[in-house]
Sequence to fold (171 residues):
Amino acid sequence: MSPARPLDQELTTEANPERGSQTAGPIAQGSTSPELEPKLVRLSVWACGLMVLYGLAWESFIDPVRDGSWLWLKVIPLAVAMPGLARAKVYTFQWMSLLIWLYLCEALVRIISPSISERWLALGWLVLGLALCGFVLLAMQRFKRQQKVYRANVVRNAEVQDSPGDEGEKK
Fold:
């Protein structure tokens, strides 16, 4: 589904000359399974990579909580998720949509810090987290919509194969 195409246009029916039936949208014509949008996948990978770099820099060099702090380890789950995000693995997008809320909560807690520098760093962390959250959730929403249309087309095509025209000839 392209972002410029409205949803109602995607669900329009078109004649299929091979079967003489009505099928819905581009998914049925290509008979391909739904996939995550490549643009949203790239944006998710970029946002996740920026969060990893930002988190490492923040907790290691810019404003660590204390000397020798191991708080930079919080970016490991993000780094582990990056290959799955880059390969557009739906399972990775699903668990990332749950994991990101921990990072958003941490940013909200640290925004009320007494240190001005930590407030600004937490605000940057919040912006990156919200961006990643938005990209992941939007990618999953569009994937689920494609999946729903695809399943409806599979059912419709199965019904067409069992058409009543064949039964009338048998009687």
Residues 1-31 have pLDDT under 50 and may be disordered. Residues 45 and 112 are 29 Å apart (CA to CA). The chain is about 70% helix and 5% strand. The two ends are 44 Å apart (CA to CA).
